[in-house]
Every structure is written in C-alpha cells, then in structure tokens.
Specification:
This protein is mainly α. The protein is about 70% helix and about 5% strand. It is found in: Cell membrane.
C-alpha cells in the first residue's frame, strides 16, 4: 500500500499548502531551463525539416532532468519515499486550480468585472480585456475542466504507471508544450515534437478523465457531447475532456474567443444551460469528486495487487 499512501499524502499536502509560489518551484526552474535551451537552439531561418529535427533534440535535452532524477535522487533508499511524495505534490495542482477559479467567482459575485477578467487571465491563454461576465464564467469553467486533466489526473495516472519518474516526465512535457506548442511562425516547426509528445502522454489520461466526468455528472449528456462534439475542438485530448465535462454539468461552453488580437470562431459544446456564477464552484466540485473516485480506484487496485 506504499503507492496509495504516497499518493494520499501528496494530495493532502497539495490541499493543505496549495501550489508553492516561489522561484524554487521545480516548474519555475524548469521553465528557465527551457528558455535557455530555446535561446541556444531555435533558429527560425532554418528549413522546416531542420527546425523539427532541432526541436526533437531540444525536447530530449530539456527532459534530461528526469533521467538525472532517476540516477541521483532515487539512488539513496532512505530518501526515496519522501522524494516520491514531494515529486507528486509538485506535479499536481488541484488546490491551486480551485483557488484560481474561486478568485474569479469572488470577483463576479462582487460585480467587479475588471478584476474578474484579470483573475481569469491567470488561467487561460485567450485575451480577457473585452470579456463579458458570461465569457468570464465560461472561460473559468473550461479551465477547471481542461486543467483538471492536465494538472491533476494525467500526472496522477503516470505516477501510478511509471512512478514519480512518470509524473515528472509528464509534468515537464506538459509545461514544455505550453511554452513551445503554439502553432505560430516562431514555434510551428520547432515546437512540433514537444506538442506531439505531450499529445501522446495525454491521450489515455484525457479519456479516462472524460469518462470520470461523465460517470459523476449527467452521464447521458456527457457521452453524447463527447461522441458528437469532441472532434470539433482543436486539441485531440482537450476535446473529449471539455465536451464530456460540459455535458456532465449540462452547461453550454465554448464559443468565439479572442487570441492574439483576433476572434477565433470556436465551437459551442457541452449542454444547453447558460453558466451561472455558482457553476464555477460546481466545476471545481466535479474535479474534486473525480479525484476522490481516482483515489478509491487506485487504493482498491493497490490492495488487490
């Protein structure tokens, strides 16, 4: 039961402390490492093939700390369990996600739209300056659903499959995709490998998350939305997660959004109900109920193994 105990302790620490906010957070340090490698290797004047090849090399280089973790930190048995718990704690962000979402909700309840825009801008990549209250609500709910998969359930999945190395590999890969995975002129080819590797690691966890959302909400609408709408979204992994989550909550999500000064005609998906302020809290509760379900399943599996 060491696996289950380690996971429970990591989740408990995350719920108690939230995400560390300092320059020594592993993901902050990793981001600086990624930036240094990018400055050294990215050359947008190269051919598309050369940029993709360089991007593959860059991915291997920036993920090398995962190998160092196995060679150094895991080599001293007395530290293994404690380090494993801390690694998973640093890789999940359920409490932080909830805190960011509730900060948006608090601003909306105070009728402070400028603050609500500012708060939701911390958890979405779209531009928020011209958002209406309805736009803010949808964006916050979508972020909880999608980031629940990326920042909670996928690292938890890989921790179970490959141990702390798997969680670390996934979280670094996901952060790398967030930095290099844009389909713009700068990263279209160089970031190709980072985006594809993140898609690969996310494929199964995303669908397990979507299934979990469906089981814990309105199952019929969630499955219907997943089956008929997921392919309309750009991401092969966010599609199932967000459509199933929106359907589970019976909420109409999506719609046009502003990116880099241009309106992107994103599809509508999920259910039929227009989101209200309290639906942000409902999305957080769905995320935590899903986490509880995963902990129960992992615990049962660990006990029977």
């Amino acid at each position: 039961m060491i696996l289950t105990i380690s996971i429970l302790l990591a989740v408990a620490i995350d719920f108690w402390l939230g995400e560390p906010r300092n320059a020594y957070h592993p993901l902050v340090m990793f981001g600086k490492w990624v930036t240094a490698v990018e400055k050294r290797l990215l050359n947008s004047r190269q051919s598309a093939f050369r940029q993709r090849l360089t991007g593959c090399v860059a991915v291997l280089i920036v993920l090398s700390p995962c190998v160092l973790y196995l060679l150094v930190l895991r080599s001293w048995p007395p530290l293994q369990t404690a380090v494993d718990i801390l690694v998973l704690y640093f890789c999940i962000a359920a409490r932080s996600l909830q805190q960011h979402a509730l900060a948006v909700l608090s601003a909306l309840l105070d009728s402070d739209l400028p603050l609500a825009r500012q708060q939701v801008g911390r958890i979405v990549s779209r531009q928020t300056e011209a958002m209406t209250e309805a736009d803010v609500r949808r964006a916050a709910i979508e972020s909880v659903l999608e980031n629940g998969a990326d920042a909670v359930f996928a690292p938890l999945f890989w921790f179970v499959v490959l141990g702390p190395f798997g969680a670390l590999l996934y979280r670094f890969s996901n952060t790398l995709d967030a930095m290099w995975g844009y389909k713009n002129q700068r990263y279209l080819y160089f970031g190709w490998a980072a985006a594809r590797f993140d898609d690969l690691l996310n494929w199964l966890p995303a669908r397990l998350t979507a299934l979990s959302y469906a089981l814990l909400g309105n199952t019929a609408q969630a499955i219907k939305a997943w089956r008929t709408q997921a392919h309309l979204l750009d991401s092969p992994n966010a599609g199932p997660v967000m459509t199933a989550g929106g359907g589970a909550l019976l909420l109409l999500l999506g719609g046009p959004a502003c990116y880099h000064g241009q309106i992107k005609p994103k599809p509508w998906f999920g259910g039929q109900q227009l989101p209200e302020n309290d639906d942000i809290n409902r999305a957080c509760k769905l995320m935590y109920r899903t986490l509880l379900l995963w902990l129960i399943v992992i615990g049962l599996g660990d006990a029977l193994a």
